[in-house]
Amino acid sequence: MRNIQNFLLGALALLVSCNTPNVTEKTPVDYVNPYMGNISHLLVPTFPTIHLPNSMLRVYPERPDYTSDQIKGLPLIVTSHRGSSAFNLSPYQGREETLRPVVDYTYDNEVIKPYYYRVYLDEQNTDIKYAPSHQSAQYEISYEKDAPVYLILNSKNGAMRVNDNTVSGYQQLENNTRVYLYLETENKPEKTGVLQDNKLNTELDTIRGNNACVALYFGDKAQVQKIRYGISFISEEQAKSNMEREQKFYDVNALAEAGKKVWNDALGKIEVQSPDENEKTIFYTSLYRCYERPVNISEDGRYFSAFDGKVHEDGGNAFYTDDWIWDTYRATHPLRVLIDTLTETNVIRSYILMAEQMGDMWMPTFPEITGDSRRMNSNHAVATVADAYAKGLRGFDLEKAYLVCKKGIEEKTLAPWSGKPAGWLDDFYKKNGYIPALAPGEKETVPEVHHFEKRQPIAVTLGTSYDQWCLSQIAEDLGKKDDAEHYLKCSYNYRNVYNPETQFFHPKDKNGKFIEPFDYRYSWGVGFRDAYDENNGWIYRWDLLHNIADLVSMIGGSQSFIDELERMYYTPLGQNRVHFYSQNADHTGNVGQFSMANEPCLHIPYLYNYAGAPWRTQKRIRRLLEQWFRNDVMGVPGDEDGGGLSAFVAFSSLGFYPITPGLPMYVIGSPVFERSVIKLDNGKTFEIVCKNYAPQNKYIQSATLNGKVWNKSWFSHEELEKGGKLELIMGEYPNKSWASLPESIPPSFEMVENRDSL
C-alpha cells in the first residue's frame, strides 16, 4: 500500500511540475528591499536609494520617512548620504497661474529597486519611470490627462537656464561647492520661460537666486515625455559630457536592465544559500547599503575637490568621498577589503590627496562632497590604512599615509567635531595620557571644544589609544622603530581612565581624580557627551578594540568577564523610556544596557570568544540579528549610517566579524546560511558550510578548515585569502567545550606568527 501511495504522490508531483509555468530564478539584487528600515525607531531612517554601486548619482524620493504618502517633486541628485536633493523636477498639469517651483505629490503604487524607480502621482494622474547610470539618468513621464502639460525644474539656491528642449544650471552647496545639471527632453516644448512669483515669464531664459526655476510647456494633450540628464561637480559642460557618454538613446527600461546587471555583478561577489528567503533579503539589502558610500566623483579623468576648491586630474585612479569614517571603519571598510580591493585602495589614495589638498596634511575624519566636516571623535582613518595594509593591499603610498595619519593625530586637536589645531587639551593628553573631564556644572574654557559635542573624554581617550596602536603597526611596517615603540606605549593610555574598583572606564578630572558620584547608565549630558559619545558607560566599557586580552584581565579573568557581559544584557534602563531616549536617542535597540543601534556596540557580542565561551557569542549574535534586523520598514534599530550597521549584518550573517581592524583576523560567530561563498578579488573563493543546517541549529559542535580540525574561535585573513572551506557542524544545543581552551581564543594586540593549528 505504501508503495502505491508513493507512486501516486510521485505522479501527482510530476503532473504539477509539468503544468507549473517556469519561475525565473531570483538574482541577488532581486532580494534587495530598499524599504527595510524606512521608518525610524527614533532618529534618521534608512532611505530607499536608487543608484549604482559607489556612484556619484544617487536619488531617493524626498519625504520625511515611509509613513508619508507625499513626495516633494522628483529628485535629480542627492549630494550627501541622507541629505536633501539638489534640484527638483516637477511634472505638472494645470493652469499656468498655478505653477510653483516644487510640486508636492501624493503617490501610490511605488516600486523601488536599487536600479529603478516607478511611482504613480495619483492626484496628477501621471506615471513615472526612472533609471540611473553612474553620472546621468533618465525619466519617462506619462501624462494621462488632456490638460496643459508642464515640466518644472528648480534649483534651491543657484541658477537655471532654459534653451528650447535643454535646461542647464547649478545649485550652490556648502564650502564653495556647486553641483551642475544638464538636461534634455526628447520632445520640443511649445514655449519656455522662467518662473517668477508663480508666473511664467517667457521673455527670460535665465534666473538666479533662491528657488531659481524654469518651466517648459508641451501643449494640452496627454503625452509621454522622455528626459535624460547628466550631473557634475565640475561644470555644466561636464554634466553634458557625462550624459552623452552614458545616455546614447532614450530607453529607461534598457537603462534599468543595464543597472540590474551592474548590481548583480557587485552583490554576486557573495553567494548565500538558505531556504529562508527573508534571510537572503536581509543579507543582500545590507550588502546593497554598503555600496551607497563612498562615491566616485571622477569625471572623464578629472574631479572637483572641495578640499582645496580646485579641479584635479585623477591620474587614472578614481577619487572617492562621502565617507563617515567613525561609522564605517569598524566593518564597512574591512568588508570592502574582502570583495572590492581596488575601490578600497582608491579610497585610501583619496584620503591622502585630501590631506595634501587641505594644506595641513591632516588625514580627514568625515570627508564629504563639500569637504571634511571633522565630525565625531578620534581619527579612525588610520585604522583603515592599518587594516588594508595588514591584509595585503599595497596600491597606496604607506609612507605618505603614515605621515598624514600622524599629523592628524598629533597636530589637529583631539576635541570632537573640531578642525582646529591642537591646544591645551591635546597637550594634557600627551603629558598625562587621558582627556580630562569637567565636573558637573564646571564651565568649559577650552576654545577647541564644541559647545554641544563637549569633550567626550572617555570616548576620545579610548579612541585615540586605539588610533595610536594603529600608528604603531604602520610604523613597525615602515621600519620606524622609535615611533613604533612610542605609539605602542601610548596605546595603553586606556589604563589611565580605568577604575579598578568599578571595572569601568571612568571620567577623571585634570587632577587625576575620578568624577564622583557617577552612574554608568546615565552620566552625563545629552547623548552622554560629557563623558562618552552617543552610548553610555556600559557600552564604552568594552570599547577597547586592540587589546581585549588586557580588558579580560582587568575585569578579573574569563569568568568575571563573561559575568559582566551578561550583566550588561540583564541590567534594565532604570528610567522611564521617554526620559531616557529624550536625552540619549542614539542608544536604541536595547537589550538591557546593550544597544544594537550604534557602531561602538557592534563588536560586543563577539567578546565572549576572548573568554573561552564562543557558544555565548553564537547564541547572542543570532538573537540580536533576529530581534533587531528584519525584512520590514522598521527592520533597522538605529541610524544605519550608510553601511555602518549594515556591514555588521553582512559579516554576522556569514558567520564571522573583523573585531580589530588592523589585526588581520576574524572572530567566528554563528552563520545564518547553509552555505556562503565569498568570491575574493584574487580569483579564489572562501566557502562557509554549515552541516546539519536548520534555523534553530545555531551552535557550533565542531569545525574543520580545509579539512583540518579547527578548534579556534577565529581564523586569519591569510587563511581566508588563500581560499578554501570552513566547515561547521551545527547543533541545537551548545558544545561548550569547542574552542574553549586558552590557546583557542582570538589574538589581541598582535598576531602570533607560526602558531600550530589546533
How would you describe the overall organization of this protein?
By secondary structure, the protein is an alpha+beta fold. It has 2 domains: 29-262, Beta-galactosidase, Chain A, domain 5, CATH 2.70.98.10; 277-744, Up-down Bundle (Glycosyl hydrolase family fold), CATH 1.20.1610. It is built from 19 helices and 35 strands. α7 (341-358) crosses α8 and α9 (398-410) runs antiparallel to α11 (457-477).
Compose a concise summary of this entry:
By secondary structure, the chain is an alpha+beta fold. It is built from 19 helices and 35 strands. Helix 8 (381-390) runs parallel beside helix 11.
Query: What is the beta-strand fraction?
Result: 15-25%
The fold-level CATH name of the largest domain is Glycosyl hydrolase family fold
* CATH C-level class of the largest domain: Mainly Alpha
CATH superfamily of the largest domain: alpha-1,2-mannosidases domains
Rg on CA atoms, Å? 28 Å
Q: Structurally, how many domains make up the residues?
A: 2
Which residues sit in consecutive blocks of at least 5 with pLDDT less than 50?
1-22, 754-758
Largest sheet: 14 strands, antiparallel
Span between N and C termini?
53 Å
The percent range for helix content is 25-40%
Q: What's the mean pLDDT score? A: 94
